[in-house]
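Contributing new complexes? Match this layout with nicotinamide-adenine-dinucleotide.
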Amino acid sequence: MSTATTPLVSEMLIGDDILTGASGPTLTHHYAATGEPNGEVPLGGEPEVAAAVAAAKAALPAWEALGPVERRNRLARLAEVVESWTGRFEAIASAETGMPKQGFAWRVRLSCEWIRTYVGYADKVGGDVTASADDGTLEYTRLEPYGVVGIIITWNSPLLSLCMKIPAALAAGNTVVVKPSELTPYTPALFGRACLEAGIPPGVVNVVVGGAEAGEVLTVHPDVEKVSFTGGLSTAAAMMRSGAALVKPFCFELGGKSAYTVFPDADVDLAVTLASKEMSNAGQSCKFGSRLFVHDAVFDEYREKLAAAIGRVVVGDPEDTGTTMGPLITRGAQERVLGFVEGARGRGDGQVLLGGGVPQLDTRLRHGYFVEPTVFTDVDPASPLGQDEIFGPVFGMFRWSDEETLVEQVNSTKFGLSNYVHTRDLRTATRMVHRLKSGTVYVNDANRRNPGAPFGGFRASGIGSEGGRRGLEEFLRAKTVGIA
Ligand code: NAD
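Output block (do not edit by hand):
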């Protein structure tokens, strides 16, 4: 039996209890490539969140007492366990998300790199000594963990999302309650088991599977001192409203409308290859460079090469090793993206160059949630196609000739997550890096998700960062101490 049809088991971790039932309704999980049910997901709510927060609070003294060196050692062991369970994570990945199995081992390796980065920080949390006052008073800052931290993530890359937040939170000395997306409960459950296997004390990492309601309860819980969230803008805005009464601090990693800017001197083949690789998760990536701003001088060459590269994308069963693009996460996501494409076509936001519909696949995949890789040209930058995050495999091409207008158009959306500049000229590169309003800008490269570098958005793409020392500091607060 293929993994995709193997029933998946959803469980929660609260303290050292592994629970397979829940207080809420049960959601049926579907294999996105066929639409067939492949698991039942019992949803937790207020009782599970309350129990998990209590377990996380109770575990704080023991986690603190371990001290930085032993916390570091347990995190190092966690990286080893996750790495040694690569096959187990791989086995559920496609069945859970519809992401192609091909290349998933690389995602596990990257996730382990994120854990190891915070292994390195765990024994290096320190504050500053401020300039001594003339009277000899000693003043210093002590960086302290928040305590219990809520971690709320979405479904598009569950293992990496967990590893971009939890190791940093634990290295800083916090305990966590994780509320994964109800669409992808399986990887977080296995991650919870990996934490126990690594000797991370029970209660330090808790996993509550649930929907929006569980997320809301976690957000407003008075014992949750901070929430780190990856997901959509409207959810973040709702969380800010519900957390306002307690002025809850948030780290928000949100969506984007990232752009490739291709200059006349660019390596066009490279720019095309990097853009087309973004189809690997069917465009369901926050940093997806969905807007392709190509200079007039190389526009036709780029368009032809992009069409050829998109033609080589193999859409199919994510379990097949040759597949390079799978389905979208749910039927609802498929309908939303197809509806968006139809709307853009109807409004005349641009001209469809490629795709725009449902691919013709074999009968077994007929009810899967697929959308063809789609390219629009001559896109109106001010239109919904030019402004809104689609979160599907849809590119828009824009022709440009004047740098002022280019910069204005690239910066014209409400987002500011990532941008990509393709040029061989150093001065052009640095000028663009300075002018583009986004949390990351890569020149002649794709976003690497390097765990040593901060990743975060400007404007409506988020608040705060994951990665590097800044990612650690998200989970620390400064206390000033004065000793006379
Ligand atoms: P979403 O906001 O609908 O859901 C994300 C999580 O929030 C889920 O666990 C969900 O159950 C929970 N949730 C929903 N309502 C809530 C509420 N009122 N209070 C608390 N929790 C609540 O996100 P989505 O649409 O599933 O995810 C896609 C979005 O995530 C895209 O915009 C994408 O760009 C973004 N994303 C950003 C990053 C990043 O690092 N910047 C990474 C991946 C995805």
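Reviewers usually confirm one structural detail per submission. For this one: The pocket of nicotinamide-adenine-dinucleotide is lined by residues 152-156, 179, 181-182, 211-212, 215-216, 219, 230-232, 235, 238-239, 253-256, 286, 389, 391, 417, 457, 462 (CB under 6 Å).
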